[in-house]
Amino acid sequence: MAAPKTYLEQTSSSNLEIMSSFQVNDPEKNTCHVEPTVVINEFDYTQRAQWLRAAVLGANDGLVSVASLMMGIGAVKQDIKAMLLAGFAGLVAGACSMAIGEFVSVYTQRDVELAHQKRDHHQKRISQRGGHNMNEEEEVIERETLPSPVQAAVASALAFSVGAMVPLLGAAFITNHKVRLAVVVVVASMALVVFGVGGAVLGRTPVVKSTARVLVGGWMAMAITFGFIKLIDSGGLEM
What we know:
Layout: E1 5-12, E2 15-21, E3 23-26, E4 31-34, E5 38-43, H1 46-76, H2 80-128, H3 136-144, H4 149-171, H5 177-203, H6 207-234
Antiparallel strand pairs: 1-2, 2-5, 3-4
Helix pairs in contact: 1-2, 1-4, 1-5, 1-6, 2-4, 4-5, 5-6
């Protein structure tokens, strides 16, 4: 039997195909044949996780933060203008905060991973003592796997804005105060379910558990904000 021949083909940064063929000699029939090719497909979720994490967290934060803020203002003010102004202020401030925070956080993570790669390469050169050194192409591939601070910041800010627009649009055309509050809760709950299911499907996590955590967390945030502001107002603080 001849030695197996193995071919490694990198079709993309996240899709790996390994194909192995075996040439078998039959001494009795003086013939040879090739065994069926084995193909292994493996998807790497590392690159997807970089933007998925920022997008899902940003959308949920925008939705829950602005909806809770509007519920808090609605607990003491019936004016629709006050609710919408508070919501828009929360949208702008939150999107900027998320973008800056995500940029700083991911940049720090990138610096740590880059420093680790440099130390690892240095140790390999010392151990090999003149042997094979990593070429420029291999170093570029490793750098491309590092998280992108700009990508994470943009994804987080855009996702926060999209999530924040849901309760704003839901309450923008409702004049009745109580109906407006109910609409904010309903549209926020529907959006939380959508974000929870979407994040679970893309991240390959349990859909029911992930969605339940997102939904219950959003309800708690809105209820606590509404109740706390209502308590402060009932204590005699003029607003």
